[in-house]
């Protein structure tokens, strides 16, 4: 049996530059991977079937991104005339879905990485990232497994180190549909592009992007619209704002703030009103999934 984590992400910066003919949006975002997330257990099945036990997640099996990722990988291998065993996958969800923290996307990426290992498919990270992109714009970053600056629809990724910070993430309890936000005519979709060079200006190449820089460039073009549609998101952000600058991640509904120490983040968490849920996590440069896989491959 193989157990792998599926971490959350935050969008520390999210700028929407325009809409493409296929309806998708050109964006620029800074994906920060966290050391907190879901967990998946994989076992081989002799009968060739794919089974997913989604635990508390109430999504039909065919729609579960874990199932869809497993099927896509298997189809891809079948085209190469490789016959594969099946898989039994157990998902333990900690991440709220429809939260803008990439829970479903990360589960899918961990499935691609985990089954590539277990089924010995030997597909490259580039191929797995391309398969992931077919399922969702947020999946490639988790497949590649680095905190990164992203462009295009989120698939053109440049790894970027950020200064270590601790995040308090709040889930105000509403699920926000990404498609609904991106199709709303009121969405800000004309932000100017910024360059990675501007982001890094004044910093030595090897140094992680400082908290000051992150704060100067922070912001999320979806925030105003999401808060007007979901007042509870604004309430949660305003509550968090008493401790540190707070903003929306992805298309929400989660909001977050950064703290220098874990203790500072936790002492805000203990004051969280009961109506909301929250967690504290550290920002990491390399995904815990990749760290775990690297341990496995080095011990083999
Ligand atoms: C907002 C972000 O979370 C930022 O990280 C992502 O861009 C969303 O990525 P995601 O949830 O993986 O999105 P997908 O599942 O690919 O797409 C959901 C819907 O969002 C819209 N969508 C998504 C990403 C993007 N760059 N432009 C879009 O317009 C599309 O209408 C699509 O039908
Ligand atoms: N394994 C899964 N975990 C969570 N949601 C899933 C999963 N599979 C399918 N879904 C569906 O995908 C939708 C989006 O879930 P997800 O957790 O990816 O949202 P999100 O946090 O807003 O992600 P993103 O930031 O990628 O938009 C859910 O509402 C759910 O119906």
From TrEMBL:
<dbReference type="InterPro" id="IPR013750">
    <property type="entry name" value="GHMP_kinase_C_dom"/>
</dbReference>
<keyword id="KW-0418">Kinase</keyword>
<dbReference type="GO" id="GO:0050515">
    <property type="term" value="F:4-(cytidine 5'-diphospho)-2-C-methyl-D-erythritol kinase activity"/>
</dbReference>
<keyword id="KW-0414">Isoprene biosynthesis</keyword>
<feature type="domain" description="GHMP kinase N-terminal">
    <location>
        <begin position="64"/>
        <end position="145"/>
    </location>
</feature>
<comment type="pathway">
    <text>Isoprenoid biosynthesis; isopentenyl diphosphate biosynthesis via DXP pathway; isopentenyl diphosphate from 1-deoxy-D-xylulose 5-phosphate: step 3/6.</text>
</comment>
<feature type="active site">
    <location>
        <position position="138"/>
    </location>
</feature>
<dbReference type="InterPro" id="IPR006204">
    <property type="entry name" value="GHMP_kinase_N_dom"/>
</dbReference>
<feature type="active site">
    <location>
        <position position="9"/>
    </location>
</feature>
<keyword id="KW-0808">Transferase</keyword>
<dbReference type="Pfam" id="PF00288">
    <property type="entry name" value="GHMP_kinases_N"/>
</dbReference>
<feature type="binding site">
    <location>
        <begin position="96"/>
        <end position="106"/>
    </location>
    <ligand>
        <name>ATP</name>
    </ligand>
</feature>
<dbReference type="InterPro" id="IPR020568">
    <property type="entry name" value="Ribosomal_Su5_D2-typ_SF"/>
</dbReference>
<comment type="similarity">
    <text>Belongs to the GHMP kinase family. IspE subfamily.</text>
</comment>
<dbReference type="InterPro" id="IPR014721">
    <property type="entry name" value="Ribsml_uS5_D2-typ_fold_subgr"/>
</dbReference>
<comment type="function">
    <text>Catalyzes the phosphorylation of the position 2 hydroxy group of 4-diphosphocytidyl-2C-methyl-D-erythritol.</text>
</comment>
<protein>
    <recommendedName>
        <fullName>4-diphosphocytidyl-2-C-methyl-D-erythritol kinase</fullName>
        <ecNumber>2.7.1.148</ecNumber>
    </recommendedName>
</protein>
<keyword id="KW-0067">ATP-binding</keyword>
<dbReference type="InterPro" id="IPR036554">
    <property type="entry name" value="GHMP_kinase_C_sf"/>
</dbReference>
<feature type="domain" description="GHMP kinase C-terminal">
    <location>
        <begin position="212"/>
        <end position="276"/>
    </location>
</feature>
<dbReference type="Pfam" id="PF08544">
    <property type="entry name" value="GHMP_kinases_C"/>
</dbReference>
<keyword id="KW-0547">Nucleotide-binding</keyword>
<dbReference type="InterPro" id="IPR004424">
    <property type="entry name" value="IspE"/>
</dbReference>
